[in-house]
Amino acid sequence: MAHQLSRLLFLLPLANALPQTFNIKPMVPNTIRLDSTFTLVINVTNPAHDFPSFPVHGLSLSTVRFGPTHNIPTVTNTTGAPFFLTSLDTTRANSDNPSLPLGLTLYSPGENDSGELVPTQSLGVDAGSGTVGLTLPVTAPVDFSECPVLAGPAPGTYVVCDTGFSSVQHPQWVVRWVAGTTADVVPAKCLAVKLLPQCIKGGEVAKGAPLGAGETPVKALCWDNVAAVQWKKSRAKC
Fold first, then answer.
1. What is the Cα 171 distance to its own chain's centre?
2. 102, exposed or middle or buried, with CB in 10 Å at 0-12, 13-18, 19+?
3. How far is Cα 224 from Cα 230, in angstroms, rounded to an integer?
4. Which of 23, 26, 3, 19 shows the shortest CA–CA distance to 229?
5. Are 187 and 120 within 8 A, CB to CB?
6. What is the 3-state secondary structure (H, E, C) of the chain?
7. Cα–Cα–Cα angle for 238, 58, 166, nearest 5°?
8. Cα(first)–Cα(last) distance of the chain, in Å?
9. Burial per residue of 212-231, b for 16 or more beta-carbon CB atoms within 10 angstroms, e otherwise
10. Which of 137, 150, 163, 231 could, after both became Cys, cross-link 195 (CB 3.0–4.6 A)?
11. How far apart are CA 223 and CA 11, in angstroms?
């Protein structure tokens, strides 16, 4: 009995010295990885404020063709548009048309009828390499606390805006960008969102994808299945 007690007293300091890892929330196993291609899933920053008539949380980014070289980003409840990341920090549409590269492009703010700058900046999946800085992480964070999410070119937020009506070349729900650092910058009829990359299983960059000089596809950090992520068990908060 005395021997057992002395052994227990000896082990107690060792137990107290062990790393206290049980209070750390790890990433849910197999939720993120590096992959070649991905879609972009809409994550509403405050789901309680989602559009009541058409909730967009969990939908995917798609495009509506406006012209031969311009496509408007919108949302869909079906499979989203496929993209890949390049070594130039741009996001490209995964197209095999060698004569028409398409990249995620951000435009300067426009003006309203009074000459005032409109609060949102248009996005397009348009001819060209795309805007530098619309990119994703390419290495896993050490503690997995960061959320793999499409970055913007500066402080601000992506938004989904209700344009009021839908027609052949005019989607009602449009993805745009708003520069700024607070929720106050989000205009009326728009919701602040994050664009979460979701890996395309078995997806590869199209063999005919047009690439510029010095431009190569790179693997990006993406989620296996955004809808299946158990956020309460994940250290990443999106």
1. 21
2. buried
3. 12
4. 26
5. yes
6. CHHHHHHHHHHHHHHHHCCCCCCCCCCCCCCEEEECCEEEEEEECCHHHCCCCCCCCCCEEEEEEEECCEEEEEEECCCCCCEEEECCCCEEECCCCCCCCEEEEECCCCECCCCCECCCEEEEEEECCCCCCCCCCCCCCCCCCCCCCCCCCCCEEEEEEECCCCECCECCEEEEEEECCCHHHCCCCEEEEEEEEEECCCCCCCCCCCCCCCCCEECEEEECCHHHCCHHHCCCCC
7. 125
8. 54
9. eeebebbbbbbbbebeebee
10. 150
11. 42
Which of 146, 149, 236 has the alpha carbon at shortest distance from 197? Answer: 149
Amino acid at position 209, single letter: A
Closest CA to 176 of 107, 233, 116: 107
Q: Is 187 within 8 Å of 119 (Cβ atoms)?
A: yes
Q: What is the pLDDT of residues 3-54, one digit of tens each?
A: 444 444 444 444 444 433 333 344 555 588 899 999 999 999 888 889 999 9
* pLDDT tens digits, one per residue of 126-151: 998 899 999 998 886 656 666 799 99
With tokens 């158990």, the residue in question is 230
Burial level of 27, CB count in 10 A (0-12/13-18/19+)?
A: middle
